[in-house]
Amino acid sequence: MNILAVDTSSVTASAALCEDDRLLGETYVRVPQTHSETLMPSVCELLRRCGVTFSEIGLFAVAAGPGSFTGVRIGVAAVKGMAMAWGAPCVGVSALEAAAWNHPFFAGTVCAAMDARRRQVYAALFAASPAGPARLSPDHAVALEELSAELGKEPVLLVGDGAELCYNAFKEEHSCVLAPDRLRFTHAGAVAALGLRAFRSGQALPPDRLLPVYLRLPQAERELRARTAQKND
């Protein structure tokens, strides 16, 4: 089965094409243009170079969050549109779990973190494994101080676009390692691998049921609710 996977949940954008567990091709860009400008051209070029058409895709996968609200929306909307157009199922996976996928042999805890601003991150903890990261905590929005308290005494590998923020906050208190830049961010190949696992466990969805995972309300909605509450006081 051909799997097309995308990730636009952070500062990078990536697309991957896999045949079951085998990676056929992957794109990865970190440029000033918005993901809405780069994603679909990257997808079309990837398929062209691999000699695969949209009609041959059996599953669409996306890093459905948490992460940048705009980025997550772009990725989810793109996958929903492609899946609807070609009549294929889709699956959303955790962007944090996908970021942890790059590090199967780390001897310690892998902490995946996305910058949520205001000294907060979206984070999850994993134990590294060749079979894929084993989850130690759910994806959650958390203050840096609270996340520090969740870390044990084991070495900690920091990944994700919030990794450097966490490293600067934790390095005096914990044995932290900052993942190399090229392995720090989510790659769509990991999204495809997690998507295949979800598909095999019966978690695939029709496109109209695929939803972004924000963990908290977008800032505009939070501000609107705050203003509404003030008016009602």
Automatic annotation (TrEMBL):
<dbReference type="InterPro" id="IPR000905">
    <property type="entry name" value="Gcp-like_dom"/>
</dbReference>
<feature type="domain" description="Gcp-like">
    <location>
        <begin position="33"/>
        <end position="124"/>
    </location>
</feature>
<dbReference type="GO" id="GO:0002949">
    <property type="term" value="P:tRNA threonylcarbamoyladenosine modification"/>
</dbReference>
<dbReference type="Pfam" id="PF00814">
    <property type="entry name" value="TsaD"/>
</dbReference>
<keyword id="KW-0645">Protease</keyword>
<dbReference type="GO" id="GO:0005829">
    <property type="term" value="C:cytosol"/>
</dbReference>
<keyword id="KW-0378">Hydrolase</keyword>
<dbReference type="GO" id="GO:0006508">
    <property type="term" value="P:proteolysis"/>
</dbReference>
<dbReference type="InterPro" id="IPR022496">
    <property type="entry name" value="T6A_TsaB"/>
</dbReference>
<protein>
    <submittedName>
        <fullName>Peptidase M22 glycoprotease</fullName>
    </submittedName>
</protein>
<dbReference type="InterPro" id="IPR043129">
    <property type="entry name" value="ATPase_NBD"/>
</dbReference>
<dbReference type="GO" id="GO:0008233">
    <property type="term" value="F:peptidase activity"/>
</dbReference>
